[in-house]
Amino acid sequence: MSARNPKGFNTKAVHVGSPTGDAGSITSPIAQTSTFRFPNVEAMADVGLGRRAGDFYTRYGTTNHHVVEEKVAALEGAEAGLLFGSGMAAISTALFPFVRPGDEIVSMPDLYGGTLALFHTVLAPLQITTRFVDGSRADAVAAAIGPKTKLIYLESPTNPLLRLADVEAICKVARSRKIITVLDSTFASPLNQSGPALGVDITVHSATKYLGGHHDVTAGVALGSRERMAALLPYRKFLGGVHEPIASWLLERSVKTLGLRVRQQNETTLALARALEGHPKVQKVFYPGLESHPQHALARRQMPRGFGGVLSLQIEGGVAGASRVANRLQLAAIAPSLGGVQTTVSLPIYTSHAGLSPEERRQAGIDDGLLRVAVGIEDAEDLIADFEQALAG
């Protein structure tokens, strides 16, 4: 190991991409500007035409963006990355270079609601169809691939039922058929799961969640080979999915503590899941870290450092029962997002899957009494006590 090539996750999080040298700011200066000036026309032409590296126009990306891209790519184990203004911007841009009208995507039905909406309301009118199959079975995915299939889109663990796709096995099938694979690994974070290590071509994260980690920035990131990121870059540039430099700076600050935060969230979430499993008012706990989870063995293999900070509870009494528990919690905030330092809870029927009909939610396994819990960094004993008092009401 050298100072320029650190091996440890936390060391990479702090040092990769960050300022170096004997003097100057220890944090990255914020280039809070929409454009950059040049000493002469020739210098502007060199950067604008790609003959020389440099900042040109903020929509094209700036040094603040590049620092985060380099840092997160190192943590994921990818060659390169691209930063976006939101997770959905990253997801949509990761698809557009590889599918055309008449092409088909193979995916899984239990995706984030925003991704499902993208497939149905944006891609379908462009005559890009999606075939949904059981993502836990590589053979089901293989059987669904047809001559028009150009891309396989996976999410693991899923939102909100914490189901796993058999990512490595599916990627082997995809490579044998020369099909692009895209994985939404938001719930896992780069600490717990590496897309490239599992054979994924492009890994996407809603950086609003664990990478941001403080409920104060909206962002997304796509990670993969330099070739794949080069294919995405024109789409990011012309669709305009880049956020302000100050948001990149906030994200850089947060990524430095990603390993510390997520390890704590892994530990606390597992403790909370074990404490609530078997509670008389909890009909079921969904968490891959539990030995009772049907895919626990796959989780141990696919997420070697931990099982993430989200669990879901199926509460007795349906929507009224779940709402009553949420309303009685004192430490957890009722909020639709996740991955931050404060625990949040939400009912998926009102948030991630509100756009689905009751029948579609039933088919997806989303019960009206499902309560999603995104664990923060509070002490486990305090959270357990809070949930126990809320359930006792």
Molecular structure report:
With 393 residues, the protein is α/β, with parallel strands linked by helices. The chain folds into 2 domains: 9-30 and 61-255, Aspartate Aminotransferase, domain 2, CATH 3.40.640; 258-392, Aspartate Aminotransferase, domain 1. The protein is built from 15 helices and 12 strands. The chain has helices at 9-15, 41-48, 63-76, 87-95, 113-123, 138-144, 167-176, 189-192, 226-239, 245-255, 258-276, 296-302, 318-328, 358-364, 380-392; strands spanning 80-84, 104-107, 129-132, 149-155, 180-184, 202-206, 220-224, 282-286, 310-315, 333-334, 344-346, 370-374. The strands form 2 sheets. It has a 7-stranded mixed beta sheet, sandwiched between helices. β2, α5 (113-123) and β3 form a beta-alpha-beta unit. α6 (138-144) packs parallel to α7 and α11 (258-276) runs parallel beside α15. The protein is globular and about 75 Å long. The protein starts with 8 loop residues before the first helix and ends with a helix.
Radius of gyration: 21 Å
CATH fold name of the largest domain, please? Aspartate Aminotransferase, domain 2
Which band does the percent of strand residues land in? Answer: 5-15%
Within CATH, the superfamily of the largest domain carries the name Type I PLP-dependent aspartate aminotransferase-like (Major domain)
Structural class: alpha/beta
So how many helices? Answer: 15
Instruction: Tell me the name of the CATH class of the largest domain.
Output: Alpha Beta
Major sheet strand order = 1-7-6-5-4-2-3
Could you give the order of the helices and strands? HHHEHEHEHEHEHEEHHHEHEHEEHEH
Mean pLDDT: 95
How many strands, what sense, and barrel or not for the largest sheet? 7 strands, mixed
Describe the global form.
globular
Ends apart, CA distance between termini: 55 Å
